[in-house]
């Protein structure tokens, strides 16, 4: 190439911009795939679809929820880690898949620190400790007494290995000095179904999914894993009232993108999430189900929060001895 042609090519590039710059400026110009690594029907599915509608309105493109369950959320999380970093595949990350999994599993098919960019946190939601009907315990005190007298005879369901409901259960067992038998499922919906059917005994679940069954009398609520009672469930004692303040816990969620995603795209997504969290619909949902909206948790603040969470769950895992093999 002659110097003249090289000069003209560079000049044209300066005028039109690089392909990456043009793609970033136009973002988004096609539908965005939002991978939720759990089954339909649970809290992750409910909140993602509600948020997806708000995000679609702000971004001007459909945000399509894709449920990809398996291995406690690892399969869907890994899929996003391997996806293109163009902003068109995003992840519903959780306390379990991002903070607890590195402590829980000896090896992971993804690296939460190196494979993802934290965009923005969404919610922190306490669990409700619910029991199947016709069990010999109607309070936390009675459950602890029964579990101590019958080690590993109480079946504790969860939404999967390393998920928020699993680790909340481990945290409670550590605080209460008991040992229950863990029964993992591929999401909270199938775990809840088996609890309703009496196949398992207890479950740490979310108010949005277990609440209707509590109000109908089909499940017995023993405690909420919060510092105080929820306004929407004033008759359910807090875990602090039950005598176990060490078991206070809220499962959090956030949106992540593959590492290397341009900062302009990350910022655009973060702004859209921030706007969605400020909507009246989201505020009403959070108030109804005792969820905390994590409006100010993005970027480096979100990264620091994740690092602190990881230290906490490492302590829980070390105490419980629950170290798992990869999927």
From TrEMBL:
Matching SUPFAM superfamilies: Periplasmic binding protein-like II (SSF53850)
Residue ranges of the TM segments: none
Keywords: Signal
Signal peptide: 1-23
Keyword check for Signal: yes
Domain of life of the native organism: Bacteria
Pfam families with a match to the protein in the record: TctC
Record flagged with keyword Transport: no
Family to which this protein belongs: Belongs to the UPF0065 (bug) family.
Protein name per the record: Tripartite tricarboxylate transporter substrate binding protein
Annotated source species: Allopusillimonas soli
